[in-house]
Design brief:
Blueprint lengths: L3 H5 L2 H38 L7 H26 L6 H29 L6 H12 L9 H18 L6 H47 L9 H18 L3 E8 L2 H8 L1 H17 L6 E6 L2 E7 L3 H16 L11 E7 L6 H17 L5 E3 L10
Parallel strand pairs: 4-5
Antiparallel strand pairs: 1-3, 1-4, 2-3
Amino acid sequence: MNSLKMNKLNKQLLQEFRNELIRENSQRFVLLLGIVIISQVIYLPLELFHILESSLSNTLSRIGVILICSIFIAVIFTLRKERENKNYLPALGLLISGIQFLCLVVGCYFVVYMFHSGIFSFSSFLLVSFVVTLTCVRNPYFSCVIFAFFIGLAVYLHIDVEPVSRWSGEFLIALVFIILIFIGNILNYNRHSTLFVREKEIVEMNQTLSIMSESDELTGIYNRRKLTEEIERNMSLSKRYNNSFCLAILDLDHFKSINDMHGHNIGDAVLKELSIQIKSMLRSTDIFGRWGGEEFLLLLPNSTINEAYILMVRLKSHIDHSEILPDIHISFSAGISCYQNETTYSELVNQADKALYTAKQSGRNRVVMFPIEEQEQGI
C-alpha cells in the first residue's frame, strides 16, 4: 500500500509527519468537541422550557458533557501553547488518544443501554467510531482498535444481553460500516502522507531556488542581484533610523595574469579561496558578495567610513601575507563610500567605483576612501 511509502522515509521525516498529524487532529478535536457543546447548549433550554421531554438526570448529563468537553478543549489549548516544550506534542497525542478511547467506551455504553431498552442498534457506536477516525493520530491502522471494540461489544451483547440471532442483520450492517471506516482511514492517511511529502519537496525546492537566485554559482557567496537588494534595504533602514553604512568594492590586482599563466580553473579556485578567507574575517552582520568577474562588494552596516577603512586595510594585509593557493599570492585594491542622506543607489556605487579607480591608478594594492582628496589616500 501507499502507506508503506512513509515507512521507507527517514525516521526524522516520519516523526515530522506524525507531529503534523497530531497538530491537525488536535484542531479537529477542538472543533468536534465545540460542536458537541453547542448541541448540548441548544438542548438544555428546550428541555428546561419543556419544549422537549426532560428529566433531572438528562439535564445533569448534558451539563456534565458540556463541562467535560470544555475541560478537554482547555487542556488541548494549554498544551498547544507549550510549543517550546519538546514534550508538548507527545502529551497532546496521548491526550487525544485518551479522549478517543473514552469516546469509544461511551459509544459502547449507549449501545448496551439501547439493547437493554429493546432497541437493537449500533448507531451510537458507529457515530463515535466515525468521529474517532476523523481524529486518528498515530497511524492508518489505529482504526483496528475500533474493530476490536466492536467485536468485544458484540461478544458481550451476545453473552449477557441478547443472542446474536436476534440482531444479526444490525451486526452485519455495522460490520460493513466498520470495514469501510478502516479502508477510508487508510486512504485518508495515505493522502495526507502524500501531500506532506509533496509539500516538503516543494518547500525544499523553493529554498534551493531561493539560494540559487541570490548566490554566485562559482563562489557560493551573494551575487550582484542579492547585493543590490541588500544595498537598497540598508538605504531604507538608514533613512528610517538615521544609521550609517559603508560600501566597499574590491578588485583583484593583475588577476588576468593568473588566468593566463595558470589557466581559468586555477583562477576560479583563487576566487573561491579568496571568498572563503574574506568571509571568515567578517562580522555576522556584514554582507559580502561577488560584484562581477574579479570584483567583490562588501556592505558594512552601522559602520563609519574610518571603521570601514580600518577593516579593509586589515583584510588587505591578511591577503597580502597569505598563500591563497600553493605558490600563488594575490593582492587587491579597494574603494570605499559611505551612505549619506539623500545619496542615491547609483551615486553610492559610483563613489566606491571612483575610489577603486583611484586605488588602481595609484599603484594598486591599496584602499582609498571617497571623497578623494588631492593627496593620496590609501595604504
